């Protein structure tokens, strides 16, 4: 069975490079990620996985920010990532995110 993980970079991105890993394997990397303040979204992408639970890792440079979180993709397939107060916050959700 395949599961789709929806990852959205939301608030706090100001031109950094962002790398996302799933179970330690790089699956997405982009430079110059910036939050669109009108909708609180910087970027979004989907990744397919055969595993119902994965470890999501996010790294942001410059700033040497890094965070990981175990995510139950079957129950919470939507993941928001924010930069807040100099730290990364990864928040899984069962519901899709809504933008203005």
SS summary, helix count = 0
**H/E order of the elements?**
EEEEEEEE
Fourth CATH level, the homologous superfamily = Type VI secretion system, lipoprotein SciN
Give the strand line-up of the largest sheet.
4-1-7-8
The level 1 CATH classification is Mainly Beta
* Strand fraction: over 45%
Q: Which regions have little confidence, pLDDT < 50, spanning 5+ residues?
A: none
Number of strands: 8
Distance between the termini: 33 Å
**What is the approximate shape?**
globular
CATH topology call: Immunoglobulin-like
Computed over alpha carbons, the radius of gyration is: 13 Å
CATH architecture call:
Sandwich
Q: Specify the biggest β-sheet.
A: 4 strands, mixed
Structural class: mainly beta
Mean pLDDT, nearest integer? 96
Q: Report helical residue fraction.
A: under 10%
**Domain tally:** 1
Write a structural description.
There is one protein chain. By secondary structure, this protein is mostly beta strands. The chain has strands at about 5-10, 15-20, 25-35, 45-50, 55-60, 65-70, 80-85, 85-95. A four-stranded mixed β-sheet has the order 4-1-7-8, with no helix packed on it. The model has no long low-confidence stretch (mean pLDDT about 95).
């Amino acid at each position: 069975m395949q599961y789709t993980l929806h990852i959205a970079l939301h608030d706090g991105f100001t031109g950094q490079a962002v790398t996302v890993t799933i179970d330690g394997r790089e699956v997405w990397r982009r430079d110059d990620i910036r939050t669109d303040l009108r909708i609180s979204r910087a970027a979004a992408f989907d990744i397919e996985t055969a595993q119902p639970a994965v470890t999501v890792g996010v790294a942001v440079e410059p700033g040497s920010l890094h965070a990981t979180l175990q995510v139950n993709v079957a129950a919470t397939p939507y993941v928001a990532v924010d930069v807040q107060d100099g730290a990364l916050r990864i928040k899984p959700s069962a519901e899709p995110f809504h933008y203005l």
